[in-house]
Structures are given as C-alpha cells and as structure tokens.
Amino acid sequence: MRRQNRLGMGIGMGMALVALAFDPALAFAQEAAGAVREYGNFPWLGARGAIWIAAEVHLMFAAFVLGVPIFGVVAEAIGIWSKDERYDRLAKEFIRLLVIAYSATAIWGAVLTFFLITLYPRFWAHLSAVFEVSMWVYVGLFFLESFTLYLYYYGWDHWKTGRAKLGHLWLGILLNVWGTIVMFIADSWLSYMMSPPTAVTPDTAPETVRLWSAIANATWMPINIHRIIANVVFGGSVVAAYAAYRFLAARTQEERAHYDWMGYVGNFVAISALIILPFAGYYLGREVYEYNEPMGITMMGGFMSWLWIIQAFLIGVLFLAGNYYLWVGMERIPGAERFQPYTKWLLLVLVTGVIVWATPHTMIASREELEAMGGSHHPFLGVLGVMSAKNTAVNLMILTTFLSYLMYRRANKRPVVAWARTGSMVQAAIFLAAAAVVLFYGIYGYYVTAIVRIGFSVYQVLAVLTTIISVMILDMLVLRGAESRGEIRWGQMPVRSQYALFVLVVTFTWLMGLMGFARSGIRQHWHIWEVMRDTSPWAATPALGYAAQMISACVLIFLGLIAFVFWLGGLIEKPALLPKATPAPAASPVPATMPAD
Amino acid sequence: MWATNLKIVGLVVTTVLLYTLVANMIPQLESEVPGELTFSGQVTTEQLVAAGEELYQGAGGCTACHGLGTRAPDLLTDEAGQGNVAARCDRRVQGLACKEYLYQSMTEPNAYVVSGYQPIMPDMRRTLSAAQIWSVIAYLQSLGGEVTVTGEDIAKTEQAQGGAPGAQTPPAGAATASLDPLELLRSNQCLVCHKLGTEGGVIGPDLTAVGRRADAEYLRRAILEPNADTASGYAAVAGTMPVNFGQQLTAAQLEVLVRYLVGRK
Fold first, then answer.
1. How many percent of chain B have pLDDT more than 70?
2. Which of A60, A194, A200, A201 to mutate to test the interface with B (most CBs of B within 10 A)?
3. I need a surface site. Which of A522, B62, B193, B213 has the fewest CB within 10 A?
C-alpha cells in the first residue's frame, strides 16, 4: 500500500508539472521572453535534438497509454461475455502497468512543454495564442482521464460481479473516450503545424485565428484515425513483448502457459491492426497531396523518398516476424503438422514481396548517380519499383499473413458440418480470386496512365478486405461445433518464438519514430507550413542517417524506461495467475484461437 | 535469468543498430534552407555554376521532380533522346535564347509547358532570389552548352524587380463577350491553374467546392486583387495569377463568375 501511495505521489507530481506548464503566468512570462529572443539553446544536443527526444519519447509513452486501454477494455469485455477469467486478469495486469506508465507520459509531456517554452519561445507564443482554449480543455480532460484510470484500476476487484462489473467496464470505455479526445486535441496542434487553414498567412495575428478552423485542419482527422489504429498495433506489440519476457522468466509450467497465451493475444491484436494501418496511411498521404502537392512530392519523391525504402524494409521485418511467430506456434498445436509443408511457400511469397516493395525507383539522385544507373531507375529491376508492383506485393503479403493465421486457427479443429468440404473449397476459391484480382490490376497498371493506375489500388485493397471478411465468416460457420484434434499445449512454445516478439516491438517502435520524422520533416524549414519560418541554426531537415541515430536513441530510452515500468509493476503485485477453481490453460477446453472466436 | 536478460538486451540493441546502419548506408539527403546569395559585379562563371549546382541539388528542391522521368522533364541526362537541358534549351521557344528560355521556365513556368507534363512547376521567384535563379541557369547551361549568364543579368533582374513590381505578370487569356461562367473560366485560362471538377490544373486552389469556404466578397477580391490574400498552402505560387482581370472582364461577367463560384458547394 505504501508503494502505491508513493506511486500516486509520483503521478500527482507528473500531473502537477504538466498543469504548471499550462499556467497562464508562465505563458505570459514566455510571451514576454519571446519579444526579446526567438530561440534558446540546449547543451550538446542543440534545441532541435532536445525537442526531438522529448517529443518522441513522450509520443511513444502516449501511444502506449492510449493503446493499452483499448486493448484492456476489449479483453475485459471478452472476459465478461465468454466468462473466461484469463481475459479479465490479462486486462487488469496491463491496466496496473498503465498506472505507472501514465506518470512517465505526464513527466515527458512536461519536459516537452518546458523545452518548447524555453527553446522555441516565438513558436510557442504563436501556438498558445491560437490554441489556448483547447489547452485548458486538454488539462481538464487530463484530470478526468487520470481519475477515471484510478477508479478503473483500483475498483477492479471491488466491482467484480454482476451489474457492478458492467459499470466497471463502462469506466474502461470512458477512459478510452477521454484518452481519445486528449489525443485529438494534441493532434490538432501538430497537424496545424503541417496544414494550417487557408485563411492563416504570415501576417495573420495568431489571436485572430478561429480555434475550430485551426483544429479542423486538412490533416487532423487522417492523423487521428492513423494514430488510433497505430496505438492499437503498438499496445498489442508491447503486451506481447511483456508476455515474452515473463514467459522466458517463468519458473512454472502454469506461468509459461499464461504468458504464452498472453503473447499470442498481444501479437494477434498487433498484426490484425497492422493489416489495416496501411489504408489509414494511404488516406493521410492523399490528404497531404490534396492540401499541398509540393508537400506531397517532397514526402514521396523529394529528399524523403529513400525513407520509404527503409519503411518497406521495416514492414518486411514485421510481416516476417509476425508470420514466423505463428508458424513456430503451430508446433504446439496437435494437427498443425498437416499445414507445415506449406509454410515454406508462404515464406517465399513474403520474401519476394519484401524485395519488390523495397525496390527503389525514381529516387532523388545526383547527375553521376543517374548516369551510372542509366536513368532514374535500374534498367531491369526498376520495373519492380513502381506502384503497380509494390501495391501488388503488399496486398499479396497481407493475403499470405491472413492465410497463415487461418492455418493456425484451423490447426487443431476437425469440422463436423456436412458442407465443410464445400465451404473450404469456396474459401480457397475466394483466396485465389483475390490473388488473381490483385495480380491482374498489378500487371494491367503497367499499361495505363498514372491517374488510372492510382485507382487500381482501390480495387486491389477491396479484393483483399472482402476476402478477409468473407473467408473469416465462412470459417466461423464451417468450424461451428468442430471436434478438437487436441488442445493447444500452451506453454510448450519454443523459446526462439519469444525473441520474434521482441523483434516485433523494437521494429514497431522504430517505425513509429521513422514515421514521426516523415510527418514532421515534410514541413522542412517551416515551424508552421508557410506561416512561420524556422530561422534557427537547426532549420535544415536532417538526412536519414542522422534521423536514424535520433530515432534509435529515442527507442532505447523508451524501451529502457518501459522495462523499468514492467519491473516496477512486478514489485507492486504478483499477479495470481489462475484461481484454484479454474483449470490451467494447458488443459482448458478453450478453442484453439481466442480473439476471433 | 541474467543470461536471458543479456540475450534480450543484445537482441534489442542489435536490431536497433541494424536499422541505424541501414539508414546510414543509403544516400544521405538533407533538406537545406535556401540561403542568401550575394555576388559582386565581377562574379565569375565558375562561381555562378558552383552556386547553381549546390542549389539545384539541395535547397532549390529541383531534384524532387526533374530527372525522375515522370513528373517533369529530365534536365541532367537525357529527355526523350534530345539530350540534357543544355542541348535543347535554345530550341524550345522560337526567339528565346537558352538563358532567356530557362529564366522564363523558372519565373513563368506556365508560359511554355513541355508536352506530356502537368503544369505543376511553381514560380521560383517565391523561394529563390534573382542571384539564385541565374546561378541555377548557369549550372544548367554548364551541362553541355556555353554559359552565357553574367553578373549583369542578376543586376538587371534585381533592378527590374525593385523598380517595376508586377512587370513580369503573365499575359491574360483571350477576352470574350460570353456570360457563360464555364466559358469565362476556360477562355480566361483560369483552368490552366485551378481545378473544377475533373477539369483543370492543380497549381492554384481547387474551385470545385469553393463556395463552401469563400463568400462572394472574398471571391470578387480574389479575382480582382489576387495578391491581396494568399491561400494557405499556395504561398509558393503566389503572384502568378494575372492582376488584370479588372480590365479583362466586364462588370456583368465578373458577377456571373462570382455567383457561379459561390454556388459551387
């Protein structure tokens, strides 16, 4: 209890720091300071480096504390409706960690705010003049969110049954609502920097900018949507990594079984959300082009064009590691042997897809480089670097990953419905049809103009989404009342699979840093695009090599701190893995795959 | 457990280092801030070319489109078998010498658009000074032809910009007696830069649903005094819209046009 009181004090101090950051007196003071100087300096790192680390680490913690409540409340709901207490324990275990991570988020938020005030006073004066009301609302919601979190966590065992449990679930939903609104408000500030409304010019007095028009700028909603999905991905991958660590540290079979299962659920959530994330990214990219075409060109074809090759490499790692985890996991499922011969072919498709996706084309190059290549791309391999090939590759990779999951899901089941064979054949036909549609438009895209070709990606995406939905529905019907070929041997997962979960969380975190650099970097030497120019010594947008070093530093700081949070969480309370009344997961008559069932 | 901890830390650090290494292996491109450029009257060709190359490859942002084959003509190597820009610049527009054509391309990019490309090039006067523009031209000429740019060109341009603002306003489109708003938009070349539905360019703000964000008063001013307000996101092309629509359109035509645009919601 004393530990919890100290924890509460820490959180209170963190919140107080953030509240102080928004103190009107301080705002007034920095405004006065802004009249005499535009930029501060930070030793060794410089102002930009300091802000970069503070903003990125804050954002990583923020993604964690926004993603995990979504994960937690869904797990709690599944636990209520399925009456499987493992989900309830899973949710509680993570909300406990959330309480600690929340204070870390607030502390990094305060660091960021103070750095903005002291290092970029002119910019901060503009931003606070435009958004002051939303900043007050933000602080108010921050309090609501904090106290809802306390009620949600500390009331977990108190409101455990009956209607009280539903009320408790409602608190979890409310926590997500507050968190989402807080994120939307913060997103409005950063998206305003990218795409200020048309009425705002360098001569506009910031006090005269209408608040709602500043909030509802062109990239606000695309960023909101992208971040919600990305937070779920991130939350799931951190949960999976936590479970992997606990699995490796487990001393009993019971613990191993629990954390093996938790790792599977976390990975399932992360990969499922990852599959739809590219569509949200596509929406954001389209809005950037709509808002300002030169900005879009800078992003995709300008000095940032190489960034997307790195992104393809990272996403390739994610797909490979996610599939590898599923394939290794099939070793502990009776009946999965019949699918294992196919995995090498799935691997072949994935590796080919990654190679195609990472093929450079029309990158910025010097005269010497262009001459050495004989043009803007490689004479033979360049044909794979265009969007037709890349869209085809990524859609086939998504279909392949879905097929891996389907094999995992069906591994230990024997259908009993009379039309099972027909159903499976229909599923196979849908898969083949989708692959044919994707390939057809991929090849046809080479023979049409760019504007027509862009439209083809919609058909490819629709074919893949339709397949995922229809095949999943069919699968649920085919497997209705299916016989078991044997229970999943939770806990008997090869150790190497757990390292794949660590690779996933590191890659997700690094990718988040990279995409943050892309979003922020396309403003180039503007604090606020074409409204406020960056005149500091750090105005140039750095090359990817330097950015990668900054991103890596942020990733290591975040992962180090989150490891500390996990360790701290273990000190607070040892989770009671299984109540004596319920059987161990290894012997539990729970279907082979939980979340989708 | 220490061994496991070390393995995990090793894996995490190795993965992070691998990503950092890969990102450092690719070409390193920095987005520079266009800096000030001042030349004395005795500036040499070498100085101009060197400054122009630095701008072209860096802060000028030229490489985002040129040389990639799809967005804009390849200036550095070969464009459709015609060689680089230095080999063809004096043949593009009759009566314009190479440096004059290149200057026109950078300051009035819609005056001549190479066949097969969209008019997406901004007026470079918005981001580059006269000295910078002439330096880039000198660099482009140096790719194969004779460099004819001199300090005198810079001085003349600076003098013209200082002495006669708006002197380089692009010519307006043909006048018409029609009161059909669509015909007016087309005949006055509005759709060269503005998009209307599926028709038109993307240089200026999209007019498809302009009535949602602008009222009649704003639109009237935008037509008559296009430099009074610059739509956010279009600062790079500000100043390119002709300022003579007040003389070009009759009062009735102006009102027809304004009413039509207000109704686009």
1. 83
2. A201
3. B213
Are B218 and B147 within one domain?
A: no
Which residue segment(s) compose the domain that B82 sits in? Answer: 45-163
Residue B243 lies in a domain: yes
pTM (predicted TM-score): 0.74
pLDDT digits (tens, 9 = 90+) for A51-60: 999 999 999 9
Q: Residue B117: its chain A contacts at CB < 8 A?
A: none
Q: Give pLDDT < 70 ranges for chain A.
A: 1-36, 362-368, 370, 374-376, 450-451, 454, 572-597
Q: Are residues B70 and B118 in the same domain?
A: yes
B112 and B146 belong to one structural domain: yes
Residue A233: enclosing H or E segment and its boundaries?
A: helix A220-249
Q: Which backbone phi and psi does B120 adopt, to 5 degrees?
A: -105, -5
Token pair 């102080």 in the structure block, residue? A20
| Domain parsing of chain A, residue ranges | 2-298+495-537
Is the ipTM value over 0.90, yes or no? no
The shortest CB-CB distance from A544 to any of B1, B8, B23 is to B23
Report the distance separating Cα A383 and Cα A546, nearest Å. Answer: 30
| SS3 sequence of A408-467 | HHHCCEECCCCCHHHHHHHHHHHHHHHHHHHHHHHHHHHHCCHHHHHHHHHHHHHHHHHH
Cβ of B233 and A198 within 8 Å? yes
Could you report the per-residue pLDDT of A448-494, keeping only the tens digit for each?
A: 776 677 678 889 989 999 999 999 999 999 999 999 999 899 999 99
Q: Do A370 and B77 touch (CB under 8 A)?
A: yes
> Is B208 inside a domain boundary?
yes
Query: How near does any CA of chain A get to the CA of B233, in Å?
Result: 6
**CATH no. for residue B57?**
1.10.760.10
Contacting residues of B for A200, CB less than 8 Å apart: 232
Distance from C-alpha of A267 to C-alpha of A233, rounded to nearest angstrom: 9
Q: Residues A380-391: pLDDT tens digits? A: 777 787 788 888
Q: Which residues contact A220 (CB under 8 A, 6 or more apart)?
A: A184, A187, A188, A191, A192, A195
Percent of residues, chain A, with pLDDT higher than 70: 86
Split into its structural domains, chain B has a count of 2
Q: Do B122 and A196 touch (CB under 8 A)?
A: no
pLDDT at site A451: 62
Residues A308-327 have pLDDT tens digits of 889 999 999 999 999 999 99
Burial of B167 (0-12, 13-18, 19+ CB in 10 A): exposed
Task: Among B136, B163, B190, give the residue marking a domain's end.
Answer: B163
With CB atoms and an 8 Å threshold, state whether A507 touches B15. yes
Q: Do B85 and B149 sit in the same domain of this protein?
A: yes
**Cβ within 8 Å, pair A249-B4:** yes
Question: What is the reported pLDDT for B232?
Answer: 75
Indicate the residue of A199, A375, A542 with minimum beta-carbon distance to B30: A542
Judging contacts by C-beta atoms under 8 Å, the chain B residues touching residue A293 are 120, 202
- Hey, how many other C-beta atoms are within 10 angstroms of the C-beta on A571? 8
Answer yes or no: is B38 within a domain.
no
